[in-house]
Design goal:
Blueprint lengths: L4 H8 L5 E4 L2 H10 L3 E6 L13 H10 L3 E7 L10 H22 L3 E4 L13 E2 L8 H5 L14
Length: about 160
């Protein structure tokens, strides 16, 4: 079971912390741990986490009933990050974001968090990038992700 008390302690010291939740259990953990803000994590095709899009609204309602502020939705199209050709990556990213936007219509909130290194330039639907961009990855360059590597640092 998720224990969010340490995050709640950070909130008590004045930090703004938002936690992604995708189940009754994670909502309970956030509320009981003292977290005040959540994003509903939606499965947009990479089934390692996230609720089914049609469940997002009900989970948002439950979170609000538990006293949490629902800031919006989060989805990760990680399964598309290095898909080639780029036209396919763009088309499948749009399909994934349609799922996320449908969930957002049920959830509400100001955020649609999504994206990653391989889809950052293609994902025009997200209002914030919820993923770390890694422009140093040679695999991304080979996949046609438009980053220019300007320096190479090495540990000595």
């Amino acid at each position: 079971m998720l224990d969010a008390r340490r995050l709640g302690a950070v909130v008590e010291r004045g930090a703004r912390v938002s936690v992604a939740v995708d189940s009754v259990q994670t909502i309970a953990a956030a509320a009981e741990g003292g977290v005040r803000e959540v994003l509903i994590d939606v499965n947009v095709g990479m089934p390692r986490c996230g609720c089914q899009p049609e469940r997002a609204g009900a989970l948002a309602d439950l979170a609000r009933e538990r006293g949490l502020r629902v800031r919006g939705v989060m989805g990760y199209e990680g399964h598309l990050q290095m898909l080639n050709p780029v036209d396919d990556r763009a088309r499948y990213t749009e399909d994934a974001m349609k799922l996320l936007l449908e969930a957002h219509a049920d959830v509400g909130g100001e955020l649609v968090s999504a994206g990653g290194t391989g889809t950052h330039a293609l994902n025009t639907w997200a209002t914030e990038s919820g993923r770390l961009l890694r422009p140093d990855g040679h695999a991304y360059t080979a996949a046609g992700v438009p980053f220019e590597q300007r320096c190479r640092c090495s540990a000595r």
